[in-house]
Amino acid sequence: MKKLLIIIFAFCLLGCVSTPSAKDLATADFGNKPVNYEENIKSIVGTNLKDPFSAQYKFDEPRKGYVEGGLMQNFELQYGWVIPVHVNAKNSFGAYVGFKTKYFLIHNELIEDVTYGYKLGAVKIL
């Protein structure tokens, strides 16, 4: 019951976030389009893998996007370049688990894992 109340409360707070207008998007600072980001993302992802040297990566093209901040971020929008990365790595038994998609937001060389926010619907790709 407690978990259900927390989930309902979280969705109520997500409703407080407004989407940016066309004017806001036109004037938003997305930063420079990232280049040479693959190795940095691989090192970030590798820290959470059992066998990081076995990992296979497929990078999608960076696209402009934003993250809708929650209560802890004062409901502010964070603009940048969203990069979906498909990762396949070996588990503890030595078998590949299949490709899992992670999402990263890059703004002026700062990389943030926004996979959880994407699953909650807080990450928008333009």
Structural commentary:
This protein is of the alpha+beta class and 126 residues long. The chain has one domain. The protein has helices at 2-14, 22-27, 38-46, 115-120, and strands at 56-59, 63-68, 77-88, 100-107, 110-113, 123-125. Strands 1, 2, 3, 4, 5 and 6 form a six-stranded antiparallel β-sheet that branches. A hairpin with a 2-residue loop joins strand 4 and strand 5 (110-113). The longest helix has 13 residues, at 2-14. The radius of gyration is 17 Å and the shape is globular. It starts with a helix and ends with a strand.
Q: Strand-residue fraction? A: 25-35%
Low-confidence stretches: none
Shape: globular
Total tally of structural domains: 1
Radius of gyration: 17 Å
The helicity comes to 25-40%
SSE pattern: HHHEEEEEHE
Estimate the mean pLDDT confidence: 87
Supply the helix-strand structural class.
Answer: alpha+beta
Main sheet properties:
6 strands, antiparallel
* Distance linking N and C termini: 37 Å
Number of strands: 6
Count up the helices: 4
